[in-house]
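Our platform keeps sequence and structure together, in a single record for each protein. Because each token names a local backbone shape, the row as a whole describes the fold. One such record is reproduced below, unchanged from the form in which we store it:
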Amino acid sequence: FVLLQKRLDHQDPKRRLEQQSQRLDELDRRLQQHLRDRLHQGERRLANLELRLQAQSPEKALAAGKRRHQLAEERLHTLMSKRQSLAGHRLAMLSARLDGISPLATLGRGYAIVRTPSGEVIRRASQVNAGQTLITTLAEGALRVRVDEVHQP
């Protein structure tokens, strides 16, 4: 009889309904927790994807490219200015050296260039005879001269 009573209690529709209701509540709670977990995972994944997308943004790449271009342009201007300054300094030095060896500078110091009327430059007294006409070029102007005497070393 006790066994039958237990079986009957176990088969009681009210009791079975309560058990199923509890099971349904437990399943509902687990489903809600699972949905919240999935939602949080989706939100985290979406946030990560948004960060990756922003990192690949054309605006950022364009801004970075503009910054690199601006820096390169500034370096180029600096290097060009330095190079121009060095070239100007070198030009001044070479110009001074050229002035130092220039025949015009030599004439400016009081020397002269003596030539025959045909243009041959006279370097030695033995190239000239008394009575010969020569052209003497000075720093400013030229002279036509006649040789009176020739003195050889």
Q: What stands out?
A: Residues 35 and 41 are 10 Å apart (CA to CA). The helical segments are 2-11, 13-55, 58-101, 103-108.
